Amino acid sequence: MLKLSYQKHTLQFKFEAGTSRGALTEHPVYYIKMWDSSSPDKVGIGEAAPLKGLSIDYRPDFEEQLSQIIENIEDLAIDQPARYEINEISNLVPAGFPAIRFGIEMAFLDWKNGGMKQIYQNRFYQGKQLLPINGLIWMGEPGFMQQQIAQKLGQGFGCIKMKIGAIDFDQECALLANIRERFTADQVTLRVDANGAFSPKDALKKLEKLSQFDLHSIEQPIRPNQLASMRKLCQESPIPIALDEELIGKLSINEKEKLLDVIQPPYIILKPTLLGGFIATKEWIDLAKRKKIGWWVTSALESNIGLNAIAQFTAEYDEGTVHGLGTGNLYHNNIGSPLTIVKDQLEYQPKKFWEELPGFVE
Residues 33, 163, 206, 250: which is the catalytic one? Predict the structure, then answer.
């Protein structure tokens, strides 16, 4: 029979991670353990990590709901679970709990592949494929942001993503100008992420000013669910726009397609924890390809357990795009893993070992 348990683990940031929605200092995650009672030594591990301020299932009763969903799955008394497919297991979790659905999918695929934290059987897991990633610059005082920029450039990142919208806009422009004075767009790709900080009234004016820095794209310039304003921005912006928060909560394939048809964005950003797992994210990829919309994958600040799964998933569909998967070093107490950043690429080093997870609630 299929058995499950979970354990909470609170990740502690090494610094105040600033966004336009405020600073983050910690991030609670829930590790889900899955096994077949007939073979208890083979265990799959998943991670459900709803993100404060973004996840539709970040709520006071999240742990209670997780416990109930796990209990409901166990009550089904699933015999011979290896005969099940991922979509059948995924559908056991209500769509309104995307982080839990992602964690259950992850645990199931890990278990089905032998409990070795192998989610997909691909070259990335074998250490034969590296994924290009951007260097992330968090918001903060100008000096702190300048320090991060210098560090990322010194490490050899060819793509820098800077969060904007929390400090003075002119100071943010000055930071971007400083990069462009030293590196052309051919040498360093610049992305910015506004996290919805601009108002529809002043967004275009700010985008025009930002365009002088040869930016690759800007993520979510205005808050989500302002479809007419976002569509207009995508049509008129001198900088290609990437939808991020706009995708959250669009659970059915019809909702996803309607959103893309209405706004017609150049790019979309995919975060499996926020979107509902591998199956839901694959639906976005398929739609984007059909509609000739660019896409890339980023983490939603998961621990290395979730990051590992997202990276393996990304490797299944990667077409050389730069992804946002360099978040493994953000925490004091992350889980040690074979994931390693080599210059500006993420590598899985199979000879390295995973650290043990915190003790599980049985």
Answer: 163
Strands 135-137 and 159-163, sheet pairing? parallel
**Residue 128 is a catalytic residue:** no
| Strand partners of residue 3 | 35
- The 10s digit of each residue's pLDDT in 140-162 is 888 988 999 999 999 999 999 99
Task: Write out the H or E segment, with its range, that includes residue 88.
Answer: helix 86-90
112 is catalytic: no
CA distance 153 to 159: 9
Q: Decide: 335 and 302 in contact? Cβ < 8 Å.
A: no
Contact 208, 238 (CB under 8 A): yes
Residue 303 CA to residue 357 CA, distance in Å, equals 11
For 235-286, the pLDDT digits (tens) are: 999 999 999 999 999 999 999 999 999 999 999 999 999 999 999 999 999 9
Distance between CA atoms of residues 278 and 275, nearest Å: 9
Cα dist from 259 to 1, 277, 292, whole Å: 40, 19, 14
Distances (CA, A) of 263 to 46, 206, 226, 258: 34, 20, 10, 9
Catalytic annotation, pick one of 3, 112, 117, 271: 271
* CA gap 308, 305 in Å, rounded: 5
